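Final report, results section. Input specification for complex C-07:
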Amino acid sequence: MASSRQLTMVNDVFVDHLKVTDRGLAFGDGLFETMRFAAGAIPLLEYHLDRLERGCRTLLIPMSRTLVESSLSRFVEAISDPAPSIIKLIVTRGSGGQGCKPPSMRSSSPSLVWQNQPLTDTAHLSRSGVTLQPCRIPIYSNPHLAGIKHLNRLNYVMAAFDLPDNPEIQGLVSDEKGHILESLHHNLFLVKKNLLMTPLLDGAGVKGVLRRLILERFAPNCGLAVREAALSLDELLLADEVFLTNGVRGIWPVKGLATTRWPSPGPVTARLQSLTEAVFAGGHINKEQI
Amino acid sequence: MASSRQLTMVNDVFVDHLKVTDRGLAFGDGLFETMRFAAGAIPLLEYHLDRLERGCRTLLIPMSRTLVESSLSRFVEAISDPAPSIIKLIVTRGSGGQGCKPPSMRSSSPSLVWQNQPLTDTAHLSRSGVTLQPCRIPIYSNPHLAGIKHLNRLNYVMAAFDLPDNPEIQGLVSDEKGHILESLHHNLFLVKKNLLMTPLLDGAGVKGVLRRLILERFAPNCGLAVREAALSLDELLLADEVFLTNGVRGIWPVKGLATTRWPSPGPVTARLQSLTEAVFAGGHINKEQI
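Structure output:
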């Protein structure tokens, strides 16, 4: 039986490689999702598939949700290790086209690349919190591609170069106008009294699945007002609480940035953490729980 | 013996696939070059390697020019078909790192992916010229990545969607401020009296190898003044002659854009075409010829 350590499946075949002519490699012409897999389930699967579908619509990549789901079932069946892990899906436009000009949607044959890898334990960061370090290189705006999880991530790669090899320090990225966006691997939330604020992400950034769950479900159910807006570093520094969200890792409190300190976790953060943990433990979004 | 039809070599092994964990696929974390190969030589090889080296310095990918050259020699030896063809090289950062955060330069092990494919005959476009069609989606500026030939090309892919399947119509792209940049696969030059103008490309665009040859060698030797500048569509429409350049295809005159018509080729374009053809025929940059 296949081991769950770095199990890979490409277009329903258990191999670890993709054709070099694939446009995912040639142009970053595709999308990805990184999902938490535990107790045989992906808690936020529907939200991941929603975002993937939105990304495919934006990039004009033909995608059948049913096909992705049946391919996922096949992949999950081969995972033998019961420990929590990460399932990563890359969807590319496949091969073809003339240079960067893509084949028509009708003649596109997308590639589905699945990877499963162990989930390293970062539970201590949920308790102790992390520190933010502003990255020097901005994430430049591209309103046409903002929000979706596409494969063109060089700007993030370069922004990450200055960070130490220490998960307790996360990189805070801003756009070229100085508006804060997110951390390199998480969305960012600010709490100010009864208001939950998060950057708008209409020019740059990735709209995370846990970000969506918090905005659409947790916040209203907790009596929190929400605001998606262009936010400055100054507004961040004036927050009562700050936290990061990630669909695989959950919620990490932010305890500081430069000389500013925040409660870690603050009361709102702690409440949202417990709701997230219940969803993660339940294996799916349970309406009663949230 | 291996056929030259779609011959591929990955890290010195003649296979047609790359590991799915490679950061080239995951993040577009790499660069590429597309080179003309004819009569056993790549005419603009040194310029391609210069640009690749500059790109590797920008992206902090460790690259040994000697290693790339020896890998190229090995690849070229396997090409049996004497017909002119295209050699494409993709250099990625390889695998490793933590999410988008790359491995250190010291622990990076870049991948070299070579592809050889037939060169379709487009000589008629050198004679008859092409028409420009402005693309609706701008190429958004990213000054940190401008000029180099990196793998993050989704913006170009999306801009190309509106174009017909007709090589006589090339897509003209502009940045988000409306400055013209290039065509999707070529650099763009304007002739105005004795002045050769081309977009600056300090915010977006690819600085082509033939563009460099023209600016640095052909123009001075032809007594043409050169100007790299932010250029508007209006300035383009007022030009005496317009042409496109590509290191594989050479120079294509532009005969029109909307209702504007240009001589195709104009006298300056024709002169630069003959210089380019001499370099292509000579198999290398020959100082006497230019």
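Helices of chain B lie at 23-27, 45-59, 65-77, 123-128, 154-159, 209-221, 233-237, 267-282. Chain B touches chain A through 53 residues (CB under 8 Å). This concludes the modelling results for the funded period.
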